[in-house]
Design a protein that fits this description.
Strand content: under 5%
Subcellular location: Cell membrane; Membrane
Number of domains: 1
Membrane topology: Multi-pass membrane protein
Shape: globular
Radius of gyration: 19 Å
Helix content: over 70%
Oligomer: single chain
Structural class: mainly alpha
Protein name: Probable membrane transporter protein
Number of strands: 0
Keywords: Cell membrane, Membrane, Transmembrane, Transmembrane helix
Family: Belongs to the 4-toluene sulfonate uptake permease (TSUP) (TC 2.A.102) family.
Length: 311
């Protein structure tokens, strides 16, 4: 019962982050699970099995509100499923000793990306609904995103959503809806890979899966409230720093880096993190001026969701 409560709180925390940023459920949940003592492969397996349910519900919601481009879903999701299966198979085949630093390295890289993206990211220009992305562009992106997501315990959203938005060819609602729908294929394929690789250990993860699902459901309305109260730039910077600092500790221990070098590494990360948090806070507190008279009406009436995602 105690374990179930712990995993429920992990799900709540991960959903609060994901609901406010539109990404990072897997990265946050996996980091918290590993921090609580769950093995690297077991943590990623549990997160992806939980995401089978959450991404299916999310995909249905986006389909209802017509936020999905099914061509984009197939072009991105099919290669993503292949990459996820390969990533899950690789992680399952590694010993705990070797899997932990691999996941820590991947999570630290993703955390660094989230940290910099939300603290220093510049507004993006968005296109109309629909996609002009080619298979040559989407297939490698999906394959890489799926592999990183399964082997690192998360990363599908940070890799694919941010990349597609930066291209400026597809409306934000369509990007988010299509990526969410395609993530169901990724989560399902990764779960299959972990089922084959972990076998009995996979089935023993049910308390983690149930806890993550229950926590996510509980936190969903609070996450909706949070996104209207807290600047995504500030929250993303804070969460990215936590992920980087937490996983850097695991790498320092794995490579047996001793004092004073370990202290210097932590100090450097903390100083950089605090500086970026202060920068994000100042940007979020800066007054919003009305657009100049010469700005086209189409720009003045930009979708509020687009503005939020761009930050």
């Amino acid at each position: 019962m105690r374990s179930l409560l712990i995993f429920t709180f992990v799900g709540i925390g991960a959903q609060l982050v994901d609901g406010a940023l539109g990404m990072a459920f897997g990265v946050t949940a996996t980091t918290l699970l590993v921090l609580s003592g769950v093995g690297a492969a077991q943590a990623s397996a549990a997160v992806h099995l939980a995401e089978v349910g959450t991404t299916f519900a999310s995909g249905l919601s986006h389909w209802k509100f017509k936020n999905i481009d099914w061509v984009l879903v197939l072009k991105l999701g099919a290669p993503g499923a292949v990459g996820a299966f390969l990533g899950a198979t690789l992680l399952s085949s590694l010993s705990t000793e070797h899997a932990a630093p691999l996941m820590a390295g991947i999570l630290m890289a993703i955390g660094t990306y989230v940290l910099l993206r939300f603290s220093l990211g510049t507004p993006l220009t968005f296109g109309a609904k629909g996609t002009s992305h080619s298979v040559k562009f989407l297939a490698p992106l999906g394959l890489f995103g799926g592999f990183i997501d399964a082997s690192g315990g998360g990363g599908w959203g940070p890799v694919t959503t941010s990349t597609l938005l930066s291209q400026g060819k597809t409306a934000p609602r369509t990007v988010i809806g299509s990526v969410s729908a395609s993530e169901f294929l990724v989560a399902l394929s990764a779960s299959l890979g972990f089922l084959i690789g972990l076998r009995h250990e996979f089935l023993e993860n049910w308390p983690i899966v149930v806890g993550l699902m229950v926590g996510g459901v509980i936190a969903a309305p609070f996450a909706a409230w949070l996104v209207s109260r807290v600047s995504p730039a500030l929250l993303g910077t804070a969460v990215g720093g936590v992920i980087v600092l937490t996983n850097s500790q695991k790498l320092v221990h794995f490579f047996d880096i001793q004092w004073p070098w370990s202290t210097a590494i932590y100090a450097l990360i903390v100083v950089a993190w605090v500086s970026l948090v202060v920068h994000a806070w100042r940007v979020s507190r800066a007054p919003k001026f009305a657009p100049d008279a010469g700005v086209p009406a189409a720009v003045e009436q930009q979708d509020p969701e687009s503005e939020s995602v761009a930050r």
